[in-house]
Amino acid sequence: MPNNKAQVLVARRIFPDIVERLRAHCEVDLHDANEPLPQAELIRRLQGKQGLFASGTERIDATLLDACPDLRAVCLMTVGYNNVDLDACSVRGVLVSNAPDVLTETTADFGFALMMAAARRISESEHYLRRGDWKQWRVDLFAGADVHGATLGILGMGRIGQAIARRGALGFGMPVIYHNRSRLPAEQEAPLAARWVEKDELLRQSDHLVIVLPYTPASHHMVAARELALMKPTATLTNIARGGVVDDAALAEALAAGRIAAAGLDVFEGEPTVHPALLQCANVVLTPHIASASVPTRRAMCNLAVDNLIAFFGGGVPPTALNLPLKPRP
Ligand code: DGY
């Protein structure tokens, strides 16, 4: 009997039981490693494959699509899809799906934690203690900024931005201001008393600025030297969006010069490489792109990518497709 199951490449190591779930529906080729496939190898492994389970690291562009004529569906386990040329996929009739919603609360928890760690100097003081530098208690020892009651500024008020705003407004009594291309409807602003402001106003007024914008050509270096100069010297900046939204070199300079008080960064330009000047700054908390990394959430993200693959190849509607309706791939 001919095997007419779709051939799918899983481009990185994921939870084995979730691979097995996919195997019940598709022929799976698993790249069972944490290192991403080099582009030429990714293209080679995609020959004769109709589906790709991908993350935020595989580059899906016109060159890859033209070199992989059988490819019909690219299903990401991430919500961000700046590594995928969506237009190039759409014109070639290739489905793209991402993984929204399932990571919203987990990522917001982490963004809030990073902001608190920066404000209250948690990493900096832990390093001091581990180095054996703690000789006596002092009134001003690692005295930082308050979080409760301080003004929370959010750049990018999508699902994750709103979840952070809820934590700030309802849990910590923080006045919330935000900047986004479009204002939230009044009924969404009201429970948080959230106020839309111009970007420069957001930078000037925020005590704690959290950046949660998607990375696009328009958001490249949206926070650079000019913007950092507008911020309060007591302010913190937290980036859980994508490297490239913040100019990391300019941020390192601002941190070193005390132009802002502290930063919390989970994403970096050119990650996993981190700008060397940031590594020299004591007043920045650095984490390796783990904002969505709770076990249940990473499982939910993988399962959602698999749901999309199973639905697409089973003739159903992929639950979180980004480019439906799809024209047939020539
Ligand atoms: C996402 O889902 O976009 C997270 O940043 C993990 O890459």
From TrEMBL:
Membrane-spanning residues? none
Q: Does the keyword GTP-binding apply?
A: no
Domain of life (superkingdom):
Bacteria
Q: Which Pfam families match?
A: 2-Hacid_dh, 2-Hacid_dh_C
Instruction: Give the D-isomer specific 2-hydroxyacid dehydrogenase NAD-binding domain ranges.
Output: 112-291
Residues of the D-isomer specific 2-hydroxyacid dehydrogenase catalytic domain? 8-323
Cellular component annotations (GO), alphabetically ordered: cytosol
Q: Which UniProt keywords apply?
A: NAD, Oxidoreductase
Q: Where is the signal peptide?
A: none
Instruction: Provide the GO MF annotations for this entry.
Output: glyoxylate reductase (NADPH) activity; hydroxypyruvate reductase [NAD(P)H] activity; NAD binding
Family listed: Belongs to the D-isomer specific 2-hydroxyacid dehydrogenase family.
Name of the protein in question: D-glycerate dehydrogenase
* Annotated organism of origin: Paucibacter sediminis
